[in-house]
TrEMBL record:
GO terms for molecular function: G protein-coupled receptor binding; guanyl-nucleotide exchange factor activity. SUPFAM superfamilies: PDZ domain-like. Residues 30-93 form the PDZ domain. One of its GO terms (biological process) is G protein-coupled receptor signaling pathway. GO terms for cellular component: cytoplasm. This is Rho guanine nucleotide exchange factor 12. Residues 1-22 are annotated as: Disordered. Residues 11-22 have a biased composition (Gly residues). InterPro entries: PDZ, PDZ_sf.
Length: 104
């Protein structure tokens, strides 16, 4: 196995005020993506926050439950909501370098 990236993401819509002015919480999921020989199997885009642009069918991200349009909230415990695309990619690459070919 290769490196891992633990990603928190928001799922679904919600989060807006409904008629009575109450704000519904946005559901959040914590997913662990185990990098395989083909990589993480996803492309990310955007800044502040970074979103999953696409997920390779059958790839590591798809197997972990990630979907195009998901907002990346944390990478390996680090809040990336105000991070740029470049910062998030560098953080994921740092995780690869840190863990090498091992998994937690």
């Amino acid at each position: 196995m290769n490196g891992t990236a633990a990603l928190r993401r928001s799922v679904g819509g919600g989060g807006g005020a409904a008629g009575g002015g109450t704000v519904e919480p946005v559901p959040v999921a914590t997913l662990v993506v185990y990098k395989d020989d083909a990589g993480y199997g996803m492309k990310v885009s955007g800044d502040n926050p970074v979103y999953v642009q696409s997920v390779k069918e059958g790839g590591a991200a798809a197997r972990a439950g990630l979907h195009a349009g998901d907002k990346i909230i944390k990478v390996n415990g680090v809040n990336v909501m105000q991070s740029t695309h470049t910062d998030v990619v560098q953080l994921i690459k740092y995780i690869d370098a840190l863990f090498g070919n091992e998994t937690e």
